[in-house]
Queue: 2 jobs
Job 1
Amino acid sequence: MTLQQLEYIVALDKYRHFVKAAESCHVTQSTLSMMVQKLEQELEINIFDRKAQPIAPTEIGMRLIDQAKVILFNAKQFKELALNEKEQESGKVTLGIIPTVAPYILPKLFNILQERNPNINLHVKEITTAEIINQLEKAEIDMALLATPLNNPNFLEIPVYYERFFAYVSPTEPLYNIIKEYEMNHIPTEHLWVLKEGHCLRNQILRLCESNSGFSTTYEAGSIDTLIKIVDTNGGYTIIPELQLDLLTEEQKANVRPIVNPEPNREISLVVRNDYVKERLLNVIAKNISDTIPENMLDERLKKFSIKL
């Protein structure tokens, strides 16, 4: 069994086509096919069902491929550990980020990296929390920026910033000119617009309102921008994160109301696997992310100390 064979089965699973998998590995189709077959013979297991169209892993094959991804990740980490001794600040980094954070971080982050660290090739996946956890566990992404805690012993969480929630209220609501702030347990649930299933912010909002009776949602939107436009056009309420405030027009900012007693917030952290070894590169990414955030929102530990793995 070789790392090369593991690369071949991972590629074949990705492309489900011998020719395309071979091309991605820069070998001939016959070489890839022969090496996969030798691995199957060594293990005495069929990793792929060749009768399927397109070719697909068997049930045990899927488990072996998931493990192969982790082994390949650790082999890469082994090399990176040596490279870290040279204080390398280059290479490809795959970052997972949740959709309710991406619009505020990514535009500035790409700009900062281009200016400061042009040798870092940042590849970003904007995906849900569940997808991020799955891909981190399979070592398909290097790090992630999402709401924590995750309570997963396999991950290291580095808090970056803490973000408050605010109510965004339509001027057509009866109490618009009367209530200047909302107590958390008295947020109106009639005409409350929320994100669709799969967004962690949706779950946080529903927890904010779970003590209220008469919860009624008429539409679940796919983005916070959409929620705001819905409120502007149809009335009602929504809940928005603090970083959204800078993206509002002056007219829209008049529709924002604080939430108090207590002030709800979320922790946003940079998360890696416990076996991640590229300490210097992690610190570079963390520093650049923190520089996109207002200083008053930053976690004090990240402002003062580098991250030790």
Job 2
Amino acid sequence: MIGIWSPATLRHDPSAEIWIGLRTPGTEVAERVHRIRDAVAADWVPAEEAPWSALTSVHSEGLLRHLRDVYAEWVAAGYPQDRVVPYVFPTEAMLGGLPGRLPAAVHGRAGRYAYDTMTLVGLGTWEAAFAAAGAAWTAARRVSDGLVYALCRPPGHHATRDGYGGSCYLNNAAVAATTLLAEGCAKVAVIDVDAHHGNGTQSIFWERADVFYGSVHVDPGAGWFPHYMGFADETGGGTNLNVPLAPESGDPAWLAGVARVCEAAARFGAEALVVSLGVDAAADDPESPLRVTEDGYLETGRLLGGLGLPTVAVQEGGYHLETLGPLVATTLRGLSTSKRGVE
């Protein structure tokens, strides 16, 4: 298996998040990369730099320029925090239907593209996110008829066309999917097995007939991020399938959901697969209550690999450092053995 990564993904290392008004320790830390690389047996290849056009295929120019430039502007303005911390967000509730103007002050602009207070921009954030998108782009261009793993960090599936949040800045899975389309695939399936719904990926492909998006995740109706979307009745034009699961549901419900999404992807006629590979549904992970076991992740990989498609696996969540690497390796082992027909 080929693994794609860049050392630049280590440059973003948030020391804290602002959650429900509290400064809490960051969980999406650079150490995640080391734990995964130590555990995953792959022929590691350096990520190439994604062209700007690959990014604008899924994100607005405004969001990209903001992420690239806002930290330098923040520092130049003399603000004391070591991260760009928004305090005002131009939501529809604020604008009331009026067009939003571009604020003159950087502390006003800080919230223009952010949609939560957890996902802060600091020194190295843009470089890491850009490198992660490059890993996904490189993997999609190398996938041929096999399996390629993109060690993307920070993750990406919560990033929308015009916004960032949920510890995500650029949508790596979406970059992989649009690159596969550009490389000649007529239809691509994105299957998301992160513990949380990939609202960004769903929104980017909501009106696309050539991309299927399916997600198995903890029910946002039970109080889990992203709260406002990820419900079963969100079907788009028939190319979107959400399978929300009750907390504490464990392997049986999880695997039934993965099987259901795989069946839908097969009916869709996908020619290639992008897996948003999060392992934060695991029993030990602090970020969800789904209680999926290591055996559950092995079978998840087998179900996905059973589609028999050229596959790009893009790293998303997984925050329990002691089990993170082994769980990623186990899922990839399931993917690779199933694709070869080996048990």
